[in-house]
Design goal:
heterodimer, A: alpha/beta, Rossmann fold, six-stranded mixed sheet, four-stranded antiparallel sheet, 7 helices, 10 strands, about 35% helix, globular, B: alpha+beta, 2 domains, seven-stranded mixed sheet
């Protein structure tokens, strides 16, 4: 379970201080598919960074599976990101000189999974995201946007994380591919029992979510 | 693929850039290797020169260091106290002689000076009266070298060949035959005090005269047995027959007299005080010369080459570090986003730093290979050029035995730079240090990259 309590994140200091996330308190149940919507600058991405332990909140607490991640040391945070979180980015952010399979194997290497096991699981995940055959050995530059995002989703699921954080995962895709990717993400998170938090502008994507959270000026304005 | 594997693979991510980086690094590392080799070669040369000179002091009659003889021969009795001075470990007494070689067709012309070693006032008595059954070991061209006649103008007596004799208390000391090395190749070295008519001849002399250990030849009207055959590194050494001091004294009729002596001192630090003690003991009876001061003077110019090589080495290594550092900073800036992603998906700072350090090491080792080729090609000519332009000369102006420049310094300018295993290992170690140093800035930058910025820039 993911829970935030009065989480605030401010940048700068004094008069120049900007509060990007302001006292957000929310709970996301295991396996839930949640969409976070809001206008540009509403604090969505900052909230994602806080949930993914990429940044520390100015105040407040974030609990993941009962553990307050705001109290973790830098080394423990690396461990937390590696094992509990899977990221999916708008621009895919695959390592360009590695094949699809090796990109998916990468997070597993960081937590010490044996090479053969890494390869087997990577291929299985790529099969699940319907990237098969020689495409599994292609480098990202030789894959379409939708195919790259499939690899990114497979990579996010590689370490069987508790939470998948997806930031505009269909932002660079056409509507048909976008719909396929979101469906894929939703189905996989369900089948793997993974919580998914998706930041999106797209109402059609939000409609597919179990719950929609709306952020306005850093505050949680609506939860439906 | 492991962190190391990714680092190596990343080094080849952009082929054009990799080639450019490797070539530039190769040039810097090549220059560093050339200077390392030059420094090592010159250092070895200085050490071997000083070591070959050794802790020795040469004693001769007055004027002998200037190539002449201004006083009387020294005697064994006069030299005896020298052996007991503090710091003296050995005393090698020496007398030289000469005899006409078989095949000489003319008597020695009056006043002819056959060799500088017999140029002193007393000369080598034997050269005027004695003869030997030995043939001169070299060709006529060699035989005429150094021949002179007086008064000028006159025709050098080219048909007169002389075999030289060296009688000393230490027959295996190369200095007594004007050489820097003497090695016995067969038989056993004779004793320097034996009264027996035994001798040591050079390989060249033995070959020319069909001699082997146990063979006999005549000289000064006596029959000598060959006890040993030796090799030396000079022609003067090769045309000399070595006997014990008492035997040659007897043959030359100089019983009790010696032409020169070499004193060996326990250590270099004792050399100066012992030299001073010898001068005080013998006073005007002798001329005292230490080759060490000559050698120190001669290798002074090599020291300047060492300095140039060292500064150039430091400069080249510094340049390599700066080149690689800038390259790595550029690469890290270029891959900032990728680093952020790696951190976001669970890579630690240490792992990412190791990956980039591996990439830097790959560049450096490739550059080292290019530099090694450049170093092998350029080391010898560059070192020789540095040495020749430094004004190295084997002749410092000072004179030792027979007024000749020190035989130890005769090859001072002959420097042969070679790429040895030690240089390669040191080069690889230096390349690794360069890579690690150059990665430091990259590592610092990696540590400062916040993965959240990657999300923010989406």
């Amino acid at each position: 379970m993911l829970e935030t309590r009065d989480v605030t994140k401010s940048f700068g200091s004094g008069d120049r201080s900007l509060t990007a996330v302001n006292g957000v308190t929310m709970t996301v149940a295991d396996g839930e598919f949640v969409a976070i919507v809001g206008r540009s600058g509403s604090g969505k991405t900052t909230l994602m960074s806080l949930l993914g332990a990429l940044e520390q909140p100015t105040k407040g607490m974030i609990f993941v599976d009962g553990e307050d991640i705001t109290r973790l040391s830098p080394g423990e945070l690396v461990h937390y990101r590696g094992r509990k979180i899977g990221f999916v980015f708008q621009s895919y952010n695959l390592v360009p000189n590695l094949s699809s399979t090796k990109n998916v194997m990468l997070p597993m290497e960081f937590i010490g999974v044996a090479k053969t096991e890494r390869r087997t699981r990577a291929r299985k995940l790529l099969d699940q995201v319907e990237l098969t055959g020689d495409k599994q050995e292609r480098k990202p530059g030789r894959l379409s946007g939708g195919e790259q995002q499939r690899v990114a989703i497979a990579r996010a699921l590689a370490n069987k994380p508790s939470i998948i954080l997806a930031d505009e995962p269909a932002g660079n895709l056409d509507s048909q591919t976008s719909s396929t990717i979101i469906e894929l993400l939703r189905n996989l998170s369900r089948s793997e029992g993974t919580t998914a938090v998706v930041v999106t502008h797209d109402a059609s994507i939000a409609d597919q979510a179990d719950r929609v959270l709306r952020l306005e000026d850093g505050r949680l304005a609506l939860s439906t | 693929m492991t962190t190391v594997g990714r680092g190596i693979r990343n080094a080849f991510r952009n082929a054009t850039r990799t080639i450019a980086i490797v070539l530039i690094l190769g040039l810097a590392i090549g220059l560093a290797l050339v200077m390392l080799i030059a420094h090592r070669t010159v250092t070895d040369k200085v050490a071997s020169t000083l070591s070959s000179v050794g802790n020795t002091v040469n004693i001769g009659p007055p004027g002998y260091s200037a190539g002449g003889l201004l006083g009387k021969f020294l005697t064994t009795a006069e030299l005896a106290p020298i052996a007991h001075l503090h710091g003296v470990t050995s005393l090698d007494e020496y007398l030289n002689g000469a005899a006409k070689a078989r095949g000489s067709t003319q008597p020695t012309p009056k006043g002819a000076v056959v060799h500088s070693r017999c140029a002193h006032a007393g000369g080598c008595k034997g050269q005027k009266t004695a003869s030997t059954s030995l043939k001169y070991p070299e060709t006529l061209a060699f035989a005429t070298q150094g021949l002179a006649c007086e008064p000028k103008p006159c025709t050098p007596p080219i048909s007169f060949f002389t075999v030289y004799f060296s009688g000393s208390t230490q027959p295996t000391a190369p200095v007594n035959i004007g050489a820097s090395t003497l090695s016995i190749v067969s038989g056993h070295a004779i004793s320097g005090t034996t009264p027996a008519d035994v001798a040591m001849v050079s390989t060249a002399m033995a070959r020319k005269n069909g001699l082997k250990v146990g063979s006999a030849f005549t000289a000064y009207g006596k029959t000598f047995t060959v006890a040993a055959i030796f090799d030396s590194d000079t022609q003067q050494g090769d045309d000399t027959v070595i006997t014990s001091l008492p035997v040659l004294e007897h043959l030359e009729g100089d019983t009790g007299q010696v032409f020169s002596a070499v004193v060996t001192v326990g250590s270099l630090t004792e050399l100066a005080p012992v030299t001073s003690e010898i001068e005080n003991t013998l006073g005007p009876l002798a001329s005292v010369v230490s080759y060490t001061s000559d050698a120190t003077k001669a290798v002074g110019s090599l020291d300047s080459v060492k300095g140039i090589a060292l500064y150039s080495l430091a400069g080249a290594v510094g340049a390599a570090v700066v080149i690689l550092l800038l390259v790595m900073v550029m690469i890290v800036r270029e891959r900032k986003r990728e680093i952020g992603i790696l951190k976001a998906i669970g890579a630690s700072n240490g792992r990412i730093m190791a990956q980039f350090t591996t990439e830097a090491i790959t560049f450096t080792l490739l550059g080292f290979l290019v530099g090694l080729v450049a170093g092998i090609i350029a080391a010898s000519p560059v070192t020789s050029s540095l040495v020749s332009h430094s004004g190295v000369s084997s002749d410092t102006g000072a004179r030792g035995l027979f007024g000749a420049p020190s035989p130890f310094l005769s090859h001072l300018g002959d420097i042969n730079a070679q790429v040895g295993r030690a240089v390669i290992l040191e080069g690889v170690a230096a390349a690794l240090v360069v890579a690690v140093l150059a990665s430091a800035a990259a590592a610092w930058m990696i540590g400062r990259i916040r993965p959240a910025e990657v999300l923010r820039s989406e």
